[in-house]
Amino acid sequence: MAWHFALMIDPAGSGDTRSDFAGTFTEVDPAAPALTVGELSTQRGDGIFESIGVIDGHAQEVEAHLSRLGHSARLCDLPHPHLEQWRQAVALAAAACGAGEAVIKLILSRGIEHGPTPTAWVTAAPAADFSAARTRGIRVVTLDRGYALDTPARAPWLLLGAKTLSYAVNMATLREAHRRGADDAIFTTSDGYVLEAPTASLILRRGDVFVTPAPNAGILHGTTQLSLFEHLEARGFETGYETIPVSELQTADAAWLVSSVRLAAPVTAIDERELAGDAALTASMNAYLLSPRD
Ligand SMILES: Cc1ncc(COP(=O)(O)O)c(C=O)c1O
Predict the structure, then answer these.
(1) Which GO terms describe its biological process (predicted)?
(2) Global pTM value
């Protein structure tokens, strides 16, 4: 059925001055085994990743994703990824994508136990159809993330701001949301502040002001939220990063979960509260997110 693409990368050192990294890439059959059983990514989830949206062969916001990959590597004590090498790998993956929407994944694993280098690879595959979430919206529930707002600063070894491969908790949170009759969840801190969704950032609207939880509280700084804030500012709206108490979810005029592949999903209900939404504004946000962005 659908096309897929996979490229193994021999990671270059940060001081590598080559301009062409083609010799460090090996295209592999995405349906064939490619990792050894000693891989720490599979044994311990010890690694980091990025998911990049692709529209008609154009990879969106590549620099923002590469910069976050570098940030996650720093938090996890992984060797700093050679950004030009990854840029070239992303270009090859994007060239393998056809028309329509796709997703490119970048994965940097700690590698094999006691092995010499990390293991790195890039994949591309068609994206799922998210048109219903973008137009009809999603119902969400708040779920406790189990730590306080100051935990990331007090315990950096928890890697709370890194996009690690350990997404078992995020997936369990989505299952709990489904059990409660919702489509998605908003994580809250144990001391009553709003964080993010398991795979998306949260944006709230209060009048003509758009706010999102400050990314210093152990959440990912979303590339989609960043890009959307630039767009909203260009349209004359005010935007801001705030420490948001859970009670504000009851007074916001509108809310969206935003991420690289699903894009902007309007929130139609938070816990018991129904939200009206603004179909025209959501449509214009998604039209912007679907346009080529660098
Ligand atoms: C936990 C979490 N927060 C936020 C995001 C949104 O990030 P981005 O907009 O860069 O996709 C993601 C994306 O997968 C995520 O997993």
Answers:
(1) carboxylic acid biosynthetic process
(2) 0.97
